[in-house]
Amino acid sequence: MSTGVEACFVVRRPAFTLDVALSAAPGEVLAVLGPNGAGKSTLLGVLAGLLRPDEGSVRVGERVVTDTAAGVHVPPHLRGVGLLAQQALLFPHLTARDNIAFGPRAHGVPRREARARADELLAGVDATALGDRRPSQMSGGQQQRVALARALAPEPGLLLLDEPLAALDVDATPAMRGLLRRVIREAKQTAVLVTHSALDALVLADRVVVLTAGRVVEEGPVREVLARPRSAFTARIAGLDLVPGVRDGAGLRTPDGLLVSGRAEGVEPGEAAVAVFPPSAVAVHATRPTGSPRNVLPVRLAAIEPRGDVVRLRAGAVPGGPVWVEGLAADVTPAAVADLAVEPGDDLWFAVKATEVAIHAAG
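and the corresponding structure tokens:
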């Protein structure tokens, strides 16, 4: 039976501290996003019982599985927690059916009942034909389907998904993503999903938390967080440009005093804020544009990135210019790049109309 989870704990390391509080309601999928080193794997390790926090507690359903003050630490195999990792990690000597039946059997379920459960789950993940195959006889995508069924077989109250699509090839990923969504929704399974992909979060999750340097810096419904990012990392994965600063009467004032004009949304003058706009709204010029009321930023071209029908021009800072332009992107047509005749190291101007810029509170 699916249950909720509540966790509030601290893990201290010599050069890093993870200090988080999060929860997921029964049947809810919570995505955890963040850059490398943010603490995502450590978070999953504590929830799974593989790591003991220095202080704090974890509750799965009505059961406290970690409480440092009370000396409680339920071992991983007794927590009612399932794990689906990047690699399937199936037992190589067992068939798909026996891999799936292993969990229920370890919990004392009779062999016939465990195998019936395995067959039911094989059908649920569209892998009935794989029942008698060993892992060496399956593709990576097929192994991950079986691994999902194995994680669900003991009917965990909480399912942990550790970048489950990261190791799949580009052809297998969409099918597995759709399968995960269907299976988790049909089972009303509570899950915590660690991912680097905004698409995975949008398709699979109800809510998202964003970790940076061991702290939760953003949280909320997935679409809301990705549409209104408050950190550079979230803006990057959402495909948006972000400029930090302070709300000014006419827009946003950057740390070096430049005014970025835009539409302010729920932020008062003097408050920390961010200006956000899509790369497609950025016009690129070889010389400073004049005439229209735009935000005009001097940049040095750092990279040229082909992206299907458009080319993304990635900005670096001009010596003596604003450093916060580093990483900003402009999406232009291949013809525009040819007309500009630019290459990395050239100085350019990024221009954005005020109507394309949204200004809202920073995290």
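(Above: one complete record from the training split.) The chain has a mean pLDDT of 91.
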